[in-house]
Amino acid sequence: MELLPRSPGEFGSARYWDRFFRQRGQRPFEWYGAFPELCPVLQKYVRPRDKVLVVGCGNSELSEQMYDVGMCEDIVNIDISDAVIRQMQERSGSKRPKMSYLLMDMLQMDFPDAHFQVVLDKGTLDAVLTDEEEATLAKVDKMFAEISRVLQVGGRYFCVSLAQTHVLKKAVKYFSQEGWVVRVHQVAGSGDKQQFVLPVFVYVMTKFRKIPGSAPQILEICPEEQDKPMRVESVERLVAAVKDRQHYALLCSQLSKTPCGEQVSLDLCDKESGRPRYTLHVVDSPLVKPSRDNHFAIFIIPQGRETEWLFGTEEGRRQLATSAGFGRLVTVALHREQHYEGMAGIQAELSGKVMELAPPGLPARQQVPFLSVGGDIGVRTVRHRDTSPLSGEYVVEDVKGDGTCYFRRLVFLCNRNVVQSEARLLARTPLTGQKKRRKDKKKPNPAEPPAAIDKSYLCCEHHKAMVAGLCLLGGPDPVPALLAVLVVGLGGGSLPLFVHDYFSQARVAVVEIDPSMLEVATRWFGFSQGDRMRVHISDGLDYVAKLAAEGTILQSIPAQYDAIMFDVDSKDLTVGMSCPPPAFVEKPFLQKVKTILKPEGVFVLNLVCRDAQLKESVLATLREVFPLLYARCIEGEVNEILFCQPSPKGRQDPAELGARARALEGALRQPGRPWDSSYVLADMLQAVKIL
């Protein structure tokens, strides 16, 4: 039996609908949204004494069910199909004496002005607005004008729709420009009974008298899981919010049917602010054989640890899912702008939502475990928040790591999953001779992190490798008597601080383009300037070019630096290289770097490049300028540390590098000077390869 129209235009034809309902017979046809799903929305607004008009009623049971449950009785149903009107008159008959069915075209209704408090449209607008042709849009304008005419001020037009973009935009723009309040409700799904994968929406448009001039539009969206509507500032934002919910429904549908080959990421937003509250990654592990108890689990990442390799990379999360032994693991990262009421609060908040991401074959009423590290949600304290004209918004925060260790981090919020700088905090120790606390004194809060910076500890593996690269410096002594070092990129200052403190004769010049970072490093990361440490606020490109020009003009000035270190991030996130900016690895600039480097010196570059072709181009340029090039990959990270030397004569084999590393470490480890026992210089250079 062919019920579908030959063309979208037939949806507006009385002849098509007569044929449709004759062929379908007495069986009710619900386009979408059965009464049990629509009832919670309608109950909020429809009053028993309201006079209700249903346009394009078809043979839906919606009016009958509204009547039967006592929601309202004064209901007039109209349709252009004579066949369905006769059918519905016979079906209702004397059962519902206050409800009527009339043959009428909604584009030209016979009712007087302001006759109804409610107009209800279930799928009719979707059926009429099949395209954006001029004739179609004119018909819709006429439909809206008639609905507006017969509706009282304060009355409501309910439009049940799948909210295709062009349909939603047309309805919202038309009525909001007329001064109406527009609120879009998402209808709760009906589980396995749901006929459509896409969610159903109800546009609730409340009629107000149009105010002359430019009155503000009131546009709101009310997701299915909350009663309180969220205000949005434009039609575009409202359409985007609806699209987000449609994409989420499609995603849940796909995840419920088949395992996901690639990891899926999505944000769940705060109901009040609309800001991201949770970031979820859905990870399927094909290596795990599903059984009744290991289908599905939720893993809460402790606050501040979302950037760690195990939680912040695809491979890490895949490894986590496999080791946890679950077929599907959903990792949940917590956002710094949000407040959380412990693990129990998070579990209560997420339980319903994460079940929508359950894998196929999950047994009914299966208890889904919530996992974490140590059973808690971690500690994160934002110490400082500000905005830099160059770096954008940033935060300084203290987070709890493994055990009792705390770390201070600098994070640029334009790239919130990358820790820009990190330092370990020293544990609090009582002062010498301090008396034991009295029992009635307030005990220190174990969640309160210490304040002093541990300058002996390099948190970043790439910083450890960069310092180890100083082993490549020539000369008989492990530590040169006078060491001149140029560091481009300050961040929190950990790298130049370590070089300054452990190479006691070193003179360190730091170039930083952003004055805000000098303030952050000084106030929050224990950085300070002195006779052997100076910071120059300048663009690294300009600073190096100026030094190179001075050396060219005054040829009596020798090359200045034993070591030059670049640890500078790129602000352009569209390039496949986040460190350094592309201009820092162009050949003319690298030649200037070589000019200010001593012949036996070393240029150390932190390279973070995800674009394989771009990376190969950078390496080729470096080889053109520096005859000797070593590389050290940082395990589990994208970082690769490049050690570049101006002369091939300084080439050292792995055995020589190991010997020099052990000698340098021995010289740096002095009695009374703290040293991180996990930091072994020789290990840092063990994986170095010559390019």
Looking at the chains present, what oligomeric state does this protein adopt? single chain
Distance from first to last alpha carbon: 71 Å
What is the number of helical segments per DSSP (H or I, 4+ residues)?
A: 19
**What's the mean pLDDT score?**
84
Can you count the beta strands?
27
Largest sheet: 9 strands, mixed
Low-confidence stretches: 1-6, 190-194, 429-444
Domain Methyltransferase: 50-165
Family: Belongs to the methyltransferase superfamily.
Biased composition (Basic residues): 434-444
Keywords: Methyltransferase, Multifunctional enzyme, Transferase
Can you give a write-up of this model?
It is a single chain. Helix 7 packs antiparallel against helix 8. It is built from 19 helices and 27 strands. It starts with 13 loop residues before the first helix and ends with a strand. 31% of the residues lie in helices and 24% in strands. It is α/β, with parallel strands linked by helices and 691 residues long. It is elongated. The N terminus is likely disordered.
